[in-house]
Every structure is written in structure tokens, then in C-alpha cells.
Specification:
The complex is a heterodimer. Chain A is mainly alpha-helical. Chain A has a domain of 182 residues. Helix content of chain A is 64%, strand content 4%. Chain A is built from 19 helices and 4 strands. In chain A, a hairpin with a 5-residue loop joins strand 1 and strand 2. In chain A, helix 6 runs parallel beside helix 14, helix 6 packs parallel to helix 18 and helix 15 runs antiparallel to helix 18. The two termini of chain A are 28 Å apart. The two termini of chain B are 46 Å apart. By secondary structure, chain B is of the alpha+beta class. Chain B is elongated, with a radius of gyration of 34 Å. Chain B is 51% helix and 17% strand. Chain B contains 22 helices and 20 strands. Classes of the chains: A mainly alpha, B alpha+beta. At the A-B interface, helix 14, helix 15, helix 17 and helix 19 of A face helix 7, helix 10, helix 20 and helix 22 of B.
């Protein structure tokens, strides 16, 4: 084994080991929070929690049925969306705008407001050249918390649907939001922000700093450049939650490739860990709350196996190098001086492995932050992030939303397999019947409709084609990537596509809106329906859903549905791009 | 079920002929719209037919021969699915026709009063109404479903049960229900009609079998939703492929976008036509299998629920044990030899025609070589059993031998100042404790000893229960016996639980308790007092010999009146669900291979370098199919033929073995999942080779 290969294995192995090791304690903690059992922090923050309820007039002990829960969720998210829109449109009249940025255009503000409400964090704008500090903090960072908490609350309501029986209600949305934010997201974000600051991530309200270049350079017009403007701002606080809450919207335009967002290998490790941490831990929370932790481990295993397989494909493709460079005679072999491989669009401080790992993790989760440019990946290396999004953002996925998406796939897997064992299918003792299948069908149907539909629209209309800067195969991949990202609430981009214009802002905004809420509503509907059902005790005749066999089946269903839906489109994008070389 | 003499061959020529005709009749869009998957195929067939005519007139998107071939095979796909359904219906109809023969219009002898009399009006059976009273005499056909209110008769019910041995029907008790279309062989009955014409049992049965009234079952509806969702996804995949290919052709600078014919071919290959085409056939065939097992379900829902059953309530007598108790031992009183006791017991039982009595004669003969004697030859007189004395016996040459329950004999002995030996009392108690029934024998007021009567557990039933346990089904024995007796038999038969001293209320309570725990309960019953429990149970099988009330309360009727049938019913229910699941898995898994055939074919020349005939995506043609046309055609042909190939599987149901869920799932995933991935690769390749060999592509 070459040292470079050894190095890759060690880093990847260490990352996954730490992730899985943390899943249990954090998952246990979150289960305590949601089950209302004592967990320590409630002693300290309990009075504050109750104060919030009093101030907001929340009746914490009154539970909601699924319709009310969904309504509260939608209204609250809509309010957040309006606030972010307003902040952007009027930021020039508001404080904390040292650079004096003007109002954001209506279509961009519309896109960004939806983007942050829906936990997508697609960014058609560049942060340091568009948004005031107030917009970043009060609008975007707040939405990072709210959209993450919304996903987690919806998941918890769904889990309650599974674990309760003959019940009408699935929890109180306001209580779930408050507890998620206060006891889970805030403490974790504070810890991570402090770690990031220790590594050199900025956190201030300063105006941008002009510094002299060490080595002067010449611009396109031949002018000698000796100075550079360095953007500042309250970045660390926003970056912590952007990673933890699978938001991914960067404070700066190049996101976590920027030295002020992600300065060191250590900061990189913690940010990567934060991407998948809550998503993985929620699997354990799920197992705990349904009274059988094996169920949680099984789902986590299915996710992790898919993740590792695709991670390997991405790392190997990138390490093998770029065929275009090979033709140019550029040395891409790993050696003593460099890591080798396809380093275009990657930071030297992260190298191949930590770039590819980030790219895989950020698209497995619906995070979408980047520390390298996915557009510059090899055809197969770029196929991995794209396909991970197209699978429906369920490999860990968005916090909350990833697991509820995966559980809907589990319901579909149980349905097909359950019939094969000769019983009406049941999951965790709940019968899966026509109503559940109707709602589950919506959940698997909507993302492909959005992704394929909008991509088709973009590649045949002049509005869409006008800003494809790489006409050709890669241009197709870029459009497909953009809508895969927005249609699954990821938010990362292939770039190379001019997306900040009315056509892409509008279609993308709608894609994000549909993908988020048209999935959350049927999911809550399933929760409501399952909560009402009786619990059937399991026996030798029931299909066990914690076994290796079931994990295999679940992986099979996820892969087959994902492959069958997107292979034709991928064939015209990354696959043909790979084969043509 | 394969050992049933009634099982008809899978492809009965007359049924096949009729099914072929029906396949075309079913092309009616109003029928097709009920099945969203096949409706899409129908639209595709029509579309490609139009495209063919357009090409024929010289302005087509591809060669007319190619479009014609695709179009033809799409039509075949629809026809094959129709054929599968028509075959299933045909087999059901054949069953119904044989039932209907029993319903030639009969005459009814309507009485004016509800008692036996010879004054009646002869009317047509079809004009009988509910509540009419009719007289049925030897040789008459019973004109409608009803209850015997007077008389006793032997009845030939072979028309509906297929069983040639006549059965007894009598007023009162649990054997008073009669079925229209059956024939009285001897004696007479006064019958109160309980069903209006067209509503009778036989009518409902025919309607069920014919599938005319067939409603989709809950699982079938849920599966249909999933299939519809998959169809929409694939519709979207193919529809968007057109703009994608237009873009790609623009980017490549050469070539032409995918033709509509090819897109339709891809769509039909991708949507789950295999399961979509066979789904209703599977449902009808499940019902048909139930009928071949001589069970009539009143709804498809009940058949499906049978597969879900968690708890079986089984009556002890007749189901777990042979109907009657058998003598197993003689225990003499002190000072009496065992031969003496056996001799006395046999004499006392010679005229006792009850099965218990006969078993005593047999035991004495087998164990002590006492030959059965003819009671008239030896000049004995029989003392019959009465409810008052609770004893029976014989008078012979001054010997007065009686046998009966311990307390009855005790009373008798006491009344003549005799002794009831303590040893005998001990023996009586120990027999009771072990689940047996003691019969005490006394001669001239002297106690001779005890006969032990025991329930005989049916051979093989224990293994059956073990199988059920593996399937996750709990068995509960229901008996009127005391708890001790019940426990002994329960242990011997290997049931999981028992309900002793069962009353109708206790049964009902037990069912409700299980249901409250989320379980599905199945039971059999025949008596009127079973009706509440039958109504409460999820799967309730009433015996055909049972009362009308029991039949009304249940959702299935077993024509053989065999309570063990419940186990078979559960198996048929499971098999129905398994067949659907297996074919769904197979259908979806098939798509992988079809992609490898069609995608390279669609983009065969896309992005080809100048001077080359194949583009980069042709590398995905891992099957090495000859040409784009042959690849697409092979996939479409495979897709159509697989429906025909799987018809026998759909009609028979997949093989069922009583093993745990995990094993069943693993086996079926291997066969239908992994098999479904691999088989189409082979099949498509073979078809391609044949097409090339025949020079058609």
C-alpha cells in the first residue's frame, strides 16, 4: 500500500469512526430532550424555556394533530421567509451595513428567502458582496436555526406517529421547535463556533480590510495590483450552525474553501464532522424513541454503507486524476511533493481526500457547503455528489428531513418485502396501508418531478440556455446539478451556470419550495395516520426491520429507485462525459 | 391443495379459447382505465400505431417496419395482460358454471302453515320469498337456502361440496341449515326459506367466483397506488428525455433527437407492466384457489386478511382431537380381574352405537381377545341411555350390567346399599385429572371397575401447529372441558394456549382481548351460539353444516365442514400476498437490464467522433446487442413475453412453505429480486440473437 493510499484510508476511517462513535451519546441526549426526560441542561435552561412559552403564549402541554402541526410549521416557515425577504430588500436602510450594500434584487431575494427557509441554502449571490451583516445575522443565521429545527421537529412528530398507538396527536410544534433550538442546536453551535474561532475564523463587525499584497500582480487590463480587500464579519457564529443544521449557506462566496471560513485542516475536520453529526445521531434517537435501538442502527447502517461506497468512488476518481491533464502531460501521480490527483478547484490545505470527503458528505447530507469546486471534479467524481442529492437527500440527509425521507423509503421497502412474506406489510408494528402508500408515493414522486421537469425546461428554452456558460455535455451536467441540488434542498452548486437571473431564481425557488414542503406535509400525514393505528406485536411471522437482510433490502430499494429515475439523465451528463474521454 | 381431485388443469382448452376472445374484448378503454399501468401501455400502442401509418405514408420518424414491430409488441403486451386476467376469470367461471347446473329451476312445495302437512301449493322456486315455508320430500331438490324447522332427512350436498356421502339435516340444533340446489335423499324436511331469490348463498358464491362483483382488496389498492406512482415517475423520466436529447444533439452538432416510438418503447419497458398486467389475475386466482379448497369467501378482503392472521382459535373436538373419545384402559375394582371387567364392559356396550361404546367393544376385543357378540343371539336386552339415568347397559340371564358416569353409578350403588370402593374413586379422580373421562361399570349394584375414555389427538396435528408457530401464528384450543382436561390435551396436541370451559361470552372476550393487542383472529364455528364470536373474528369460517346464523356471521363458509381447513385458508391468504410481492419485486428488478438495452440503443451514435459509427454511450451495451433497433425490440418483446411466461405462476401462486418471515424473505428476494435482475439480461440477449438469426433486425 502506498503511503498516500494509507493516508487516505486512515483519514476516511478516522472520520467515519468518530462520526459513528458520537451518534450514540448525542442521539441518546436528543431522545431525552424530546421525550421530556431529565438530561441536565434542562435544569439550567428550564426557566428560560418556560419564559419563552409564557412570552409567546404557548400552551406547552397541549398537543396537536398532524394537520395542526403541519399548519403551524408552514405558517412559522412562511413568516421566516417574509422576514428574510424584507431584510434583503431594505438592508440599505437598516443598521450593520458597513459596506453600504444596496437592496437585493426581488428575484434574488425571493430565491434566497426560500432557500434559507427550506434548509437548502442555495446561493445565487456572493455573501461578502451582497449581504449586510444584519441580513446575514438576523435573516440568514436565524433561518439556519429555524429551518434545521423545523426538519428535526417534523422528524420527531413522525417518530411519535410510529411509536404511539391509538393516539390523535403527534406533539406540539412550538414546543419541539423551542426545545430543539434551545437544548440541541444552540449548545452545539456555541461549542463549534468557539472551536472555529480558535482556528482563525473571523467573528467581528469590522469594515473590510485593505491589505498590501506580498507580491504584486497584474489584472486583465494590465494594471498593477498591490492591494487586496479582505472581507470581515460575524462569520464563525453563522458557520457553526450552517454545518450543524445542514444548511450550508456560506458567509463568503466560496463558502468553506475561504480561509476565513475554514482556515485549517482541524477546522475542516470539525466542520465536516458537523455536517453529518446530527443526521447520524438522529438515527439513534429514532431507535431510542421507538423503543428498539436496533431499528436506529439498521437505518444508520444502510446510510453508512451507501455513503462509504460512493465516497470510495469519489476519492478514487479524484485521486486517479483528470484525463484532460494527462493529455497535457501534467504530473498527477502522488509523490513526496504533492498529493497528486485532480487538484483543479481544490485547496492545497485540504488535498484530494478531504475535498472528496467533504463533497460526498455535504451532498449525502443536504448541507451544500463546499470546500472545493465540484464543477472541476472528474466526470465520475462529480457524479457522486449529484447522484447523492438525487437519491433524495436521505443518506444522513438534512437534519430531520434526511431521516424522515429514509423512513419513508423504509416504509416502501417494508411494503414490497412485507407482501413477499405473506402479510399485510407493517413497520414497527404499524400496518402500512393504502393511505400511507399514497403519501409515501408523493414523497418519492415529487423530487424527480421537480428535478427532471425544471432541468428539461432549462435545457430547451432560451431563458435557460442563455446562461449555460459551458454549452455541451458539461453544461447539461451543470443544469442537472443545479436542479438536483435545489430540488432536494441541498444548496451546493456546480457553478459554471449563471443562476442569478430571474429564470433560475424563480424556477429554483419553486423547486426548493416544493421539495421541502410537499415532502414534509405527506410525511406528517403518514405520522398522523400511523399514530391512530393499533400496535401489532411482532413475532416470527413479522418482517424484522433490524436485520442485515432488511438493511440490504433498504439499500436496494433506495439505489434502484434512485438509479431508475436518474440514470437516463445522468447518461447524458457525467456518464457520457466520462466515456467520451 | 394439489391433492384435491377437483383441481383443474392450468390451461384447460375451452377456457383458453374463451380467454383469447376475451383478451380482445377487454381492449375497451373503459375496462383498461381501471388498471393505470396497462392503460398507459394501451395509449402507447395506439400512439405507435398512428406513428406507423404516418411512416407508411412516407413521413415517419423511423422505418415503418421498425415502428410496426414495436407497435405490434405493445399491443401484444396489452393482450397478454388481458389474457392473464381472462384466464383467471375463466377458471372461476368454469367453477361457477358447475355450481349453476345445480340451479336448474326447481319446483317448490309451499306450505300454508309452518308444520308438516300434505297440503301444499306447487310453485316455481324462483318465486319463493324469505319467510316462506316449504316441504321437501325424498327425491326433491331443496328450492332455496333455509332452516329446517321440522323433520330429519339425509341430503346429498355434492352439488356444492363435491362430497358424495350424504349428510343429515334436522330441525333444531346446529345441523338445521339447508342450501338451495341440494337434494333430499330420504325422509322429509319442513324448511323455512331464509334468503330471497338472487340473494341466496349459491348466487353470492357464483358472483364471487365470476369476479363480476370483485372489488379490489386493501393491499391490492395500496399496491396499485405504488405502481401508479412508479408509472408517473417513469412517464416523467421518458418525457424529459426528449428535451434532454434535443439539447445533447444540439451540443454534439449532429444526429437527431430520440424518436417518439423509442420513447414509448422505453416507457412501456420501465413501467411495472409485469405486475400491473398480472395483478388482477393474481387476485382472482387467489379466490379461485380458495374455492378449489372448497371454501367460499364472501369477500376478497377476507381472503387477504387470512394471510395476516396471528391467532387461530380452534375447537378441540373435531379439529384437534378426533370427534369422539376412545376407550383406552380398563381399571378393575379390588377383587375383580381385568378380564371380568372387560367382559362386562363389552357386554354393556354391545348395543351402544355411540363411538365411545364401539371403542369399548373394540378395546376389549383387541386387548383381551373378547369377540364382539351379537346381542340378539345371546338373548340380551339393551338398556338405552337416558338423560334421567345417565347410564346404559344390558340385561342378560339375570345379569344387570350398567355403565355410566361415576356419580350416577355411585347413586345407584348406594340406593341398593352397596359399596363404592375407595380405590375406584381414586382411579376415577386420576383419570379426570389426566384429561380422560371415566365410565364406571357395575353389575347388579356391584362396582366392577372403571373404563378410561380419552380424547385422541389427530395424527399430524402437532406438526401442523409447529409449522404455524414458525409462521408466527399462535394456536388457541377452545373446549368446554375443565381446565385440567384441557391442559392435558393442549400439551399433547402442542397448542400454544387453551380456553377451558368456554362459553360463547368467554370466546367473544378472548377474541376482543387479542384484537385489542393488535392481533388478527381467525376462528371456525358452526353453532348459533358461535355467531357473536364469528362476527367479531377477523377471519370467521363457518361450517356448511352449521346454522344459518353462523353462516351469516362468518365471512367464509367451508363446504367440507372441516375445521382443520382454517390452516389451509391462512396459507392461501399468505400465498396471495406473497405472489403479489414477488412479482412486484421481479418487475422492478427487471428494469435494470432494460436500461442496459435501451439507453445505449437510444444514444448509439450520440457524440460519435467523425468517421465513427458508435458514440461513447454505446459502451453501455454490455449485452452486445446487434443494433439499436434489435436492442429496443428485444427489450419490448421480453417485456411482453414475460407476462405470458409468468401467467402460470400468477394463477397457481408462488410456492409456499411454512417457515419464518426472515427465511421467506431471503428466499423470495434471491429468487425474484436477484433473479429479476439477472433473467432479463439473458432473455433480452437470446431474443436479440433470434431476431438477428431470423434477419428481422
Amino acid at each position: 500500500m502506498t503511503p498516500i493510499l494509507m493516508n487516505s484510508y486512515l483519514q476516511l476511517g478516522f472520520y467515519i469512526a468518530v462520526l459513528i462513535a458520537l451518534a450514540k451519546p448525542l442521539g441518546w441526549y436528543m431522545a431525552r430532550v424530546y421525550e421530556g426526560k431529565p438530561f441536565g441542561l434542562d435544569r439550567v435552561l428550564g426557566p428560560f424555556e418556560r419564559l419563552i412559552y409564557r412570552l409567546c403564549g404557548i400552551k406547552a402541554d397541549e398537543e396537536m394533530n398532524w394537520k395542526l402541526y403541519a399548519l403551524a410549521m408552514l405558517l412559522f416557515n412562511f413568516a421566516g421567509l417574509l422576514i428574510v425577504y424584507a431584510l434583503q430588500r431594505w438592508q440599505d436602510f437598516l443598521p450593520l451595513n458597513p459596506q453600504g450594500f444596496g437592496a437585493v434584487t426581488p428575484d434574488s431575494a425571493f430565491n434566497t428567502a426560500i432557500s434559507f427557509a427550506s434548509n437548502t441554502n442555495w446561493q445565487g449571490y456572493g455573501g461578502e458582496t451582497t449581504m449586510s451583516y444584519l441580513t446575514q445575522m438576523l435573516g440568514l443565521a436565524v433561518q439556519n436555526f429555524i429551518s434545521a429545527a423545523t426538519g428535526m421537529a417534523t422528524l420527531i412528530a413522525f417518530i411519535r406517529g410510529l411509536s404511539r398507538h391509538t393516539a390523535q396527536t403527534i406533539g406540539n410544534f412550538w414546543v419541539d421547535m423551542v426545545r430543539t433550538t434551545l437544548y440541541i442546536l444552540l449548545p452545539l453551535a456555541i461549542v463549534l463556533a468557539l472551536i472555529q474561532v480558535s482556528q482563525g475564523v473571523v467573528q467581528n463587525f469590522d469594515t473590510y480590510q485593505n491589505v498590501s499584497l506580498l507580491q504584486s500582480t497584474v489584472d486583465a487590463n494590465g494594471n498593477v495590483i498591490t492591494e487586496q480587500s479582505l472581507p470581515m464579519g460575524p462569520a464563525a457564529s453563522q458557520i457553526a450552525i450552517k454545518q450543524l443544521g445542514t444548511n450550508g449557506g456560506g458567509f463568503f462566496n466560496v463558502n468553506s474553501a475561504h480561509p476565513f471560513e475554514n482556515p485549517t485542516p482541524l477546522s475542516n475536520f470539525f466542520e465536516m464532522l458537523a455536517i453529518l453529526l446530527i443526521g447520524a445521531a438522529l438515527c439513534y434517537t429514532f431507535g431510542k424513541m421507538v423503543g428498539d435501538t436496533r431499528q436506529g442502527w439498521a437505518v444508520l447502517a444502510a446510510m453508512t454503507i451507501i455513503f462509504i461506497a460512493l465516497l470510495a468512488l469519489c476519492v478514487i476518481s479524484e485521486q486517479n486524476g483528470n484525463p484532460a491533464f494527462t493529455k497535457m502531460g501534467i504530473d498527477q501521480k502522488a509523490g513526496a511533493l504533492h498529493s497528486g490527483g485532480n487538484m483543479e478547484g481544490k485547496e492545497v490545505r485540504f488535498g484530494i481526500v478531504n475535498s472528496a470527503l467533504w463533497a460526498t458528505a455535504t451532498t449525502a447530507a443536504s448541507n451544500g457547503s463546499v470546500n472545493s469546486m465540484h464543477d472541476s471534479y472528474t466526470a465520475l467524481g462529480g457524479l457522486v455528489p449529484m447522484w447523492l442529492m438525487q437519491l433524495g437527500e436521505i443518506i444522513y440527509g438534512g437534519v430531520g428531513s434526511g431521516l424522515y425521507g429514509m423512513l419513508v423509503f423504509a416504509i416502501i421497502a417494508v411494503f414490497v418485502a412485507g407482501l413477499m412474506v405473506g402479510r399485510t406489510p407493517e413497520y414497527l408494528g404499524k400496518k402500512i396501508e393504502a393511505y400511507e402508500m399514497k403519501m409515501a408515493s408523493l414523497v418519492i414522486l415529487i423530487p424527480p418531478v421537480v428535478v427532471l421537469g425544471f432541468t428539461a425546461l432549462a435545457v430547451v428554452t432560451e431563458w435557460g440556455k442563455a446562461t449555460i456558460y459551458n454549452p455541451g455535455i458539461h453544461g447539461f451536467s451543470e443544469v442537472l446539478y443545479a436542479f438536483s441540488s435545489q430540488g432536494n434542498n441541498n444548496g451546493s452548486a456546480f457553478a459554471g451556470l449563471g443562476a442569478n437571473n430571474p429564470f433560475y431564481n424563480l424556477t429554483g425557488g419553486l423547486a426548493m419550495l416544493f421539495a421541502r414542503y410537499w415532502l414534509a406535509i405527506p410525511t406528517l400525514a403518514i405520522a398522523g395516520s400511523l399514530a391512530k393505528k393499533k400496535h401489532i406485536p411482532s413475532g416470527p411471522g413479522t418482517l424484522a426491520t433490524h436485520t442485515l437482510l432488511f438493511v440490504t433490502l433498504l439499500i436496494g430499494i433506495v439505489i434502484i429507485v434512485g438509479a431508475l429515475t436518474f440514470i437516463p439523465a445522468l447518461a447524458l451528463g457525467p456518464i457520457v462525459e466520462h466515456l467520451i474521454q | 391443495m394439489s391433492d384435491k381431485p377437483k383441481a383443474r388443469p392450468l390451461f384447460d382448452p375451452p377456457i383458453v379459447r374463451q380467454a383469447m376472445i376475451d383478451s380482445f374484448r377487454k381492449l375497451d378503454p373503459r375496462i383498461q382505465i381501471r388498471n393505470p399501468v396497462m392503460f398507459v401501455v394501451l395509449i402507447g400502442s395506439i400512439l405507435t400505431t398512428i406513428l406507423f401509418f404516418q411512416a407508411w405514408l412516407g413521413q415517419g420518424e423511423a422505418s415503418p417496419a421498425f415502428i410496426f414491430a414495436i407497435s405490434m409488441w405493445l399491443w401484444f403486451t396489452v393482450l397478454f395482460a388481458n389474457f392473464a386476467e381472462a384466464m383467471a376469470e375463466g377458471r372461476g367461471k368454469a367453477q361457477a358454471d358447475s355450481l349453476r347446473r345445480a340451479r336448474r329451476d326447481t319446483q317448490a312445495k309451499r306450505l300454508h302453515k309452518s308444520e308438516f302437512s300434505t297440503e301444499y301449493a306447487v310453485i316455481s322456486a324462483s318465486t319463493l320469498k324469505k319467510g316462506d315455508i316449504v316441504l321437501v320430500e325424498a327425491g326433491d331438490v331443496i328450492p332455496g337456502d333455509g332452516e329446517a324447522i321440522e323433520g330429519i332427512a339425509s341430503v346429498d350436498e355434492s352439488a356444492i361440496t363435491g362430497e358424495s356421502a350424504p349428510v343429515i339435516r334436522e330441525s333444531g340444533g346446529d345441523r338445521n341449515a339447508v342450501t338451495g340446489g341440494t337434494r333430499v335423499l330420504s325422509d322429509w324436511l319442513v324448511v323455512k326459506i331464509t334468503a330471497n331469490p338472487g340473494d341466496a348463498f349459491l348466487d353470492r358464491m357464483i358472483a364471487m367466483v365470476e369476479g363480476a362483483k370483485r372489488q379490489k382488496t386493501p393491499n391490492e389498492i395500496a399496491l396499485n397506488i405504488l405502481l401508479a406512482a412508479l408509472t408517473i415517475i417513469f412517464l416523467l423520466v421518458t418525457v424529459t428525455l426528449l428535451p434532454f436529447s434535443i439539447y445533447s444533439v444540439g451540443a454534439a452538432g449532429t444526429g437527431s433527437p430520440i424518436s417518439v416510438t423509442v420513447l414509448v418503447a422505453l416507457l412501456v419497458c420501465l413501467i411495472p407492466t409485469t405486475i400491473g398486467g398480472l395483478l388482477s389475475a393474481i387476485g382472482i386466482a387467489g379466490m379461485d384457489r380458495m374455492i378449489q379448497a372448497n371454501v367460499i369467501a364472501t369477500s376478497g378482503r377476507a381472503v387477504e386478511a387470512a394471510g395476516d392472521v396471528d391467532v387461530l382459535l380452534l375447537d378441540k373436538t373435531g379439529t384437534i382431537t378426533l370427534g369422539n373419545r376412545h376407550a383406552t384402559a380398563f381399571i378393575p375394582a379390588p377383587g375383580i380381574s381385568i378380564e371380568m371387567l372387560a367382559d362386562a364392559a363389552q357386554l354393556a356396550s354391545l348395543s351402544d352405537e355411540t363411538p365411545e361404546g364401539r371403542s369399548i367393544v373394540v378395546l376389549a376385543k383387541e386387548k383381551y381377545k373378547l369377540r364382539g357378540r351379537n346381542i340378539h343371539e345371546i338373548g340380551a336386552t339393551f338398556i338405552p341411555f337416558t338423560a334421567q339415568t345417565r347410564m346404559s347397559g344390558v340385561n342378560l340371564d339375570g345379569r344387570h350390567i350398567l355403565k355410566g358416569a361415576a356419580d350416577a353409578i355411585d347413586e345407584l350403588v348406594r340406593s341398593s346399599a352397596g359399596q363404592f370402593p375407595a380405590e375406584v374413586r381414586t382411579a376415577v379422580e386420576s383419570i379426570s385429572k389426566n384429561g380422560g373421562t371415566p365410565l364406571v361399570v357395575a353389575e347388579n349394584s356391584k362396582v366392577l371397575g372403571v373404563i378410561e375414555l380419552k380424547d385422541i389427538v389427530k395424527r399430524g396435528i402437532k406438526e401442523r401447529f409447529a409449522e404455524l408457530r414458525k409462521m408466527g401464528i399462535k394456536t388457541v384450543m377452545i373446549t368446554g372441558d375443565n381446565p385440567l382436561t384441557a391442559a392435558t390435551i393442549a400439551a399433547e396436541a402442542g397448542v400454544d394456549d387453551f380456553l377451558a370451559q368456554a362459553t360463547p361470552e368467554a370466546k367473544l372476550k378472548l377474541i376482543r382481548e387479542h384484537q385489542a393487542g393488535g392481533k388478527l383472529v381467525a376462528m371456525t364455528g358452526d353453532g348459533t351460539n358461535d355467531a357473536p364470536a364469528l362476527a367479531q373474528a377477523d377471519v370467521a369460517v363457518s361450517m356448511n353444516t352449521g346454522t344459518q346464523a353462523a353462516k351469516e356471521a362468518g365471512n367464509m363458509v367451508d363446504l367440507d365442514s372441516n375445521p382443520t381447513k382454517l390452516i389451509e385458508i391462512v396459507e392461501i391468504g399468505k400465498q396471495l400476498l406473497m405472489t403479489r410481492g414477488a412479482l412486484t419485486t421481479f418487475s422492478i428488478a427487471n428494469d435494470v437490464a432494460k436500461y442496459f438495452a435501451i439507453i445505449p440503443a437510444m444514444f448509439w451514435t450520440l457524440y460519435a467522433k467523425p468517421g465513427e459509427t458508435k458514440g461513447p454511450l454505446a459502451a453501455l451495451n454490455i449485452m452486445g446487442l446487434e443494433s439499436p433497433e434489435s436492442a429496443i425490440l428485444s427489450a419490448v418483446i421480453f417485456n411482453a413475453l414475460i407476462i405470458i411466461v409468468l401467467i402460470p405462476l400468477a394463477l397457481r401462486g408462488i410456492r409456499y412453505r411454512p417457515v419464518g418471515a426472515a427465511t421467506v424473505l431471503r428466499n423470495n428476494l434471491l429468487i425474484y429480486g436477484v433473479g429479476g435482475l439477472i433473467i432479463p439480461f439473458i432473455g433480452i440477449k437470446i431474443i436479440d440473437v433470434i431476431l438477428v438469426a431470423l434477419g428481422w433486425a
